[in-house]
Amino acid sequence: MATKHQEATELIIEQLIKSGIRLVASLPDDWISDLIHTIDNDRRFTHVPVNREESAIGLCSGAFFGGIPSLALMGASGLVTCLYAMTKINYSYHIPLFLFTTLRGAIGDPRAHHIANGLYLERLMDAISLPYMIVDESRKILRIPDAFKHSQVMNRPTVVAFTEPVLRGEA
């Protein structure tokens, strides 16, 4: 029998498949390690682990020109580090980009070194008019295809940010 955590991961995978995602570029984060592992073992995806967040941005942007729907998967601090790459590449040249991130530093995150992410991530996304969807309830996972389509329609990046309870299947 699947655990709540596994069920949440499988629901996310189903929504990626519905979205048409075929390529996933990822950087590790302990909240999404099971999601990364599941994607890596799923033959429906080509998974490319990258060493820098900007590499995920470049890879997924290039995949767009090759007609390959893609996802950049990273932690919140990684998203913050690649804001320049997104505004320079994706905003300037109207290249859609679909990103998943963790909502680190939110209330309930016991790791003090992530507090800055909780204080600034949403404000940073608002400051650069980066559309995002906070997934703080499992039912919102079903909106992933809508977020992907939004990125394609706008020809700009769109972020889906997950809380830890959702990723654990507890919300």
Number of helices: 8
Mean pLDDT: 92
Number of separate strands:
6
Largest sheet: 6 strands, parallel
- The CATH topology assignment is Rossmann fold
- Tell me the name of the CATH class: Alpha Beta
What structural class should be given to the helix and strand makeup?
Answer: alpha/beta
Shape: globular
The count of domains is 1
Question: If you had to describe this structure to a student in words, what would you say it looks like?
Answer:
With 171 residues, the chain is α/β, with parallel strands linked by helices. The chain has a single domain, classed as Rossmann fold (3-Layer(aba) Sandwich), CATH 3.40.50. It is 48% helix and 16% strand. It has eight helices and six strands. Strands 2-1-3-4-6-5 form a six-stranded parallel β-sheet, with helices on both faces. The longest helix is centred in the N-terminal third of the chain and has 16 residues. The mean pLDDT is 92.
